[in-house]
């Protein structure tokens, strides 16, 4: 039996579950925002260029096209650098796995119905889920350093 399991459940499990959920939501929002910006700027460039021939405001149109191209490049670059899509998927996967583990524990289903000490199994499985995520980010960080990307 795990000492002070209730404290672990509230302070570690619930905290980690919420953290991963919050990070997934945040990265999804960033990803969708920047991906939408890329779409808008990519559409603005050819649309604006179509107004160039014979336009009295050609310098304004050129400025709009230049700004849209700049913003398109910046938005795409930020998506690439910060990798919001992959982070969103990774955090969401871990958050959902933690939720599922909590449900199995609380309903005493799956492996929890077959063990004498479900609290210890729960702690082990939660810590494994969290450390998988940590190992992944450490591996990714090491790989990027080796490639000179950090």
What does this structure look like?
This protein has 150 residues and is mainly alpha-helical. It has 4 helices and no strands. The mean pLDDT is 89.
How far from one another are the termini?
Answer: 43 Å
Mean pLDDT: 89
Note the beta-strand portion. Answer: under 5%
> What's the count of strands?
0
**What's the main sheet like?**
none
Order of helices and strands: HHHH
Uncertain stretches of 5 or more adjacent residues: none
Quick tags:
150 residues, single chain, mainly alpha, 4 helices
Mind sketching the topology for me?
Blueprint: H1 5-49, H2 58-82, H3 84-107, H4 118-146
Helix pairs in contact: 1-2, 1-3, 1-4, 3-4
Short description:
The chain has 150 residues and is mostly helical. It has helices at 5-49, 58-82, 84-107, 118-146.
């Amino acid at each position: 039996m795990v000492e002070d399991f209730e404290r672990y459940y509230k302070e570690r499990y619930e905290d980690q579950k919420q953290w991963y959920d919050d990070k997934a939501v945040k990265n999804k929002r960033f990803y969708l925002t920047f991906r939408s910006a890329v779409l808008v700027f990519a559409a603005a460039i050819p649309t604006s260029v179509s107004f160039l021939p014979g336009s009295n405001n050609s310098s304004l149109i050129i400025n709009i096209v230049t700004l849209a191209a700049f913003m398109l490049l910046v938005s795409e670059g930020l998506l690439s650098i910060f990798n919001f899509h992959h982070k969103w998927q990774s955090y969401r996967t871990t958050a959902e796995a933690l939720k599922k583990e909590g449900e199995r524990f609380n309903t005493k289903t799956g492996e929890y119905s077959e063990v004498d000490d479900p609290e210890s199994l729960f702690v082990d499985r939660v810590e494994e889920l969290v450390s998988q995520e940590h190992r992944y980010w450490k591996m990714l960080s090491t790989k990027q350093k080796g490639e000179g990307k950090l």
